[in-house]
Amino acid sequence: MANLAFVPAFAQDSYKMQPVAVQTRWAKEVSPTNALPEYPRPQLQRENWQNLNGLWDYAITPASVTNTPSKFDGQILVPFPLESALSGVKKTLLPEQRLWYKRKFDVQTTAKEKVLLHFGAVDWQTEVYVNGQKAGAHTGGYTEFSFDITNLVKSGSNTLVLKVYDPSDKGIGPHGKQVLAPANIYYTPSSGIWQTVWIEKVPTSYISDLLLTPDIDNNTLNITVDAPKGYTVEATASLAGTSAGSVKGIANTKLQLPVSNVQLWSPGHPALYDLTVKLLKDDQVVDEVKSYFGMRKIAISKDEKGQERIFLNNKPYFNLGTLDQGFWPDGLYTAPTDEALSFDIRAIKGMGFNTIRKHIKVEPARWYYWADKLGMLVWQDMVSPNHNLPEGAKAVFEQQCKETIAQLQNHPSITTWVLFNEKWGQYDQKRLTEWIKHTDPSRLVNGHSGEYLYVNDKLRSPSPNAYVSADLTDVHSYPNPMDAIKIPGKAKVLGEFGGIGVFIPDHQWNTNSAWGYITEKPGALKAKYTIMNQHLQLLERQGLSGSIYTQPFDVEGEQNGLLTYDREIVKIPFAVIRKIHAPLNPDMGQMPDVTAADADITDPTESYSNLLQQYIDGERSPAFLRKMAMTAVQAGDRDAASMAGQEYFAQIKAPYSDDDLRYVMQVTGSTSDTGFQIILSNKEAIDKAMGARQSTIKIMNLLYQDMIAPSIPEQNANPDWNAISTSLKPYGAAGEEIFLRAKTIYLLNKQDKANFIPVAKEYLAKYGQYARSDERRRIEAILGN
């Protein structure tokens, strides 16, 4: 079975990437004939497979539709999520809807083979049908699953249908940074298929999994082969073509493969051994898979001064890391190409980091392969449960944790499991930390990253029982680095810090925002970042064992990356930032090939001043007016942004394109702007183009800014809430929601409990589903008392 996606003859003409604010250099390489064609599972690889990526039919229906639609809406490029530009669709899936996929595939069946259908990941709940019969179902948006479809397929053409439910942050399942109303540190959802789909032919008795655990102290690889009982297995290791050892034994038992002349794996020397595993019956080869492993050890030990530190291969090793979200402007959760996927790790390594904290996301297997191959330590976050912990959330979270560990356990790059982050859905921390430690004793467990959270030196998140049963104590401190607390037996790490916001014109997803914990102009970033890293050196001498900077790439509204979201501009040159990092990372090894343009450190307001002068001199072309208005927003010149925006709006007419509506949303800064009336009149179209409630959120923000905030300039003000309510009535539900929210928060902060209670109850009853989880918990806590 060849590694070829099924592509209809009309596929190339019918697919078109949707518009997007910025895109990566790899997006133009994507087409229906080459959508991620690489074998998706490098640690359990066979030759006899068929890639099902490519164009599929899709439909979005009401949840009440239970049977396969008779008519589909169009075509979608798999495996790019529905909301992404690269899918060719770019639509938001709402909780009351279902997403359907359909395609044909050919397969030739024999009595001596089984046919397996594999999914890298589908977000969130999936039912799979083959030729009208249910093959199975899976719940969880981040882990792989497979079905044996041998008895459902026939030789020749077959029909595959998927039904997908993905409520994003409105459901009970882990959703990571995906929300239906993206803003600040939360981003656009990725619904449906977002990793490779493929078919594999295997013998009737076959190897279904491997468990590989290196033991460098005894120069052995512990290996367990998951296969039918009664079979023999043989595993052979080699390094660069030279035999390194072998072992033969019984399937499903732990075998010890002796490794000769061991070369240890580390970021500076990522030595990977090739591994061939055969399944034998009466000395005849029944099945064979290819894999690989690395010989490395991670532990907490005391250094020569008695300080607990992270040790790699029995030596202290400072984990100099960065917080990687794994989002792409064109593919969202899915990298455009395998080259793009590897670029992120090469770029991070090229900046002189040796560690990536993979933040609230599980990547495709090939991402971890590149981390293994290039040499990068990985702290792997569990995807946090729904923060409000609705009924059922704990069970699906724990199931996903179990699947995540089982799926990733063989990667040498992964050294640390991170259970919780900043109290997001935190519960049963002791039990779950100990469960992970028992499940995988070969790695460190960070039971809670940021259980203590400081912003501008103020503690936001105290904890009476911090870091129970974990290997690390972990503090988050924004913007400047801070030491974690000292607890005997645990190493200290700084799980997040930094977040310096720097916007680069023409390389932004959202020109209304340059969000960061602090903001700097491009020319000032190097000095600020250098000082932060000098403080890391001081903290390292006091026993700090690792640090995670936020973050390597801009992501949507967050512009605090060291590279822009499109990966085109590096804000501190690679050679310069490597030099900054060198004192804490002497084990850089050979630097990978990676390219990005250096940032222009000219003050961006100078460029804006030039545009403003052209405007004064009479330039009024539509393209110029758009650019000037967006740049004026960034420069803080609201008056000029309004003038340019008004003139641009006068040149465009309804019905507005999606691109026009996104622009209106970006540059409208006041209820008096023409754009505000366009938003009010086009809410449904805006939400369809940009995501659920985007128009409502924009309207509420502008109403608060112009009609509420001026009445409460300080906490001891006494606003006329009746007058405010009357002024907001013309704006319907959006006006009522922002009124109730503003009054609730005002009375809460003023500690006026008598007046707070009825307003808060009304707010939660009508609009509580849209409240931020931390805000809702705070309100409910007061009501409960």
Description:
Helix 3 (365-374) links the parallel strand 26 and strand 27 (377-381). This protein is α/β, with parallel strands linked by helices. It folds into 5 domains: 11-203, Sandwich (Jelly Rolls), CATH 2.60.120; 209-293, Immunoglobulins (Immunoglobulin-like), CATH 2.60.40; 310-598, Glycosidases (TIM Barrel, Alpha-Beta Barrel), CATH 3.20.20; 602-685; 693-785. Helix content is 28%, strand content 26%. The protein is globular and about 85 Å long. It has a 10-stranded mixed beta sheet with strand order 29-28-27-26-25-36-33-32-30-31.
Short description:
This protein is of the alpha/beta class. It has five domains: 11-203, Jelly Rolls (Sandwich), CATH 2.60.120.260; 209-293, Immunoglobulins (Immunoglobulin-like); 310-598, Glycosidases (TIM Barrel, Alpha-Beta Barrel); 602-685; 693-785. The chain has a ten-stranded mixed β-sheet with strand order 29-28-27-26-25-36-33-32-30-31. Strands 3-2-4-10-7-8 form a six-stranded antiparallel β-sheet, with no helix packed on it. A four-stranded antiparallel β-sheet has the order 1-12-5-9, with no helix packed on it.
